[in-house]
């Protein structure tokens, strides 16, 4: 019996509501590139970004005069109840497939719901935008617990995304999650990924789930779908764009690295066949065996910080 998964597409705030919250801050504006899917446009003195209210999903970010740092598929479309392919989708309260029920949405439901815009501010060269997602009857149909998520997004010469996950109920529960960052590359075959050497990973693309030792820095020459057991930062040396991109993190003992390569790219309808050459996902996660326990009134922070460095 197919389980009817109740997933709401209703926005909780109108364009007027959103505009009123940001009305005092000229650097923050509300646009609607696709009807029904408002986006916060951010223009700081040193960078620019766009953030979708749907999923509280950062879509784009780049320091001024730099090529994009995040990748968004040119075939991505905003559709309610589905994640947009790119930027930084928030995967919660489970990473990947649901641990028990394969009919549940992949990567949980936080990325496919409209969040509430709580506040926006501009201090110096930094914009801070805060979104909230609170449990309701719809979410309880998928995850029978009370929670309050707060996404705090800081835009300046770096991009910081912090997900605070709070248990507002009376039952204890575990979660898995990821800030599923799509990084834009000049050419996947001309990068070196540093930061995972010396750690072990679970290969999600293999039936063998025994941890594998990562002997060297990672070069991607085929499908990679790995959960690294690592608390380290990642540095991507992009020889084509002659820059390095760093991904720092906090509250995470696992880093997911994903590139679909040729075959999987062809299978994904919202990804051009050659798109595998232009991005890699470096996801600060709580995945695999790294599953935080949230006690009543307890909370956990998962944070990623992304920026550019010269290609040393
Ligand atoms: O993070 C890696 C992964 O779990 C891959 O297995 C692949 O499924 C990717 O996420 C994208 O998932 P999505 O549901 O957004 O297509």
Short account of what is shown:
The chain has 312 residues and is mainly β.
Label this structure with key terms.
single chain, 312 residues, mainly beta, eight-stranded antiparallel β-sheet, 6% helix, disordered N terminus, binds 6-O-phosphono-beta-D-tagatofuranose
H and E order = HEEEEEEEHEEEEEEEEEEEEHEEE
Count of helical stretches: 3
Largest sheet: 8 strands, antiparallel
Low-pLDDT sequence parts = 1-8
Q: Report how far apart the termini are.
A: 57 Å
Cα shape: globular
Structural notes for this entry:
This protein is mainly β and 312 residues long. The chain contains three helices and 22 strands. Strands 5, 11, 12, 14, 15, 16, 19 and 20 form an eight-stranded antiparallel β-sheet that branches. A hairpin with a 4-residue loop joins strand 3 and strand 4. The longest helix is centred in the N-terminal third of the chain and has 7 residues. The radius of gyration is 19 Å and the shape is globular. The protein starts with 14 loop residues before the first helix and ends with a strand. The N terminus is likely disordered. 6-O-phosphono-beta-D-tagatofuranose binds next to strand 19 and strand 20.
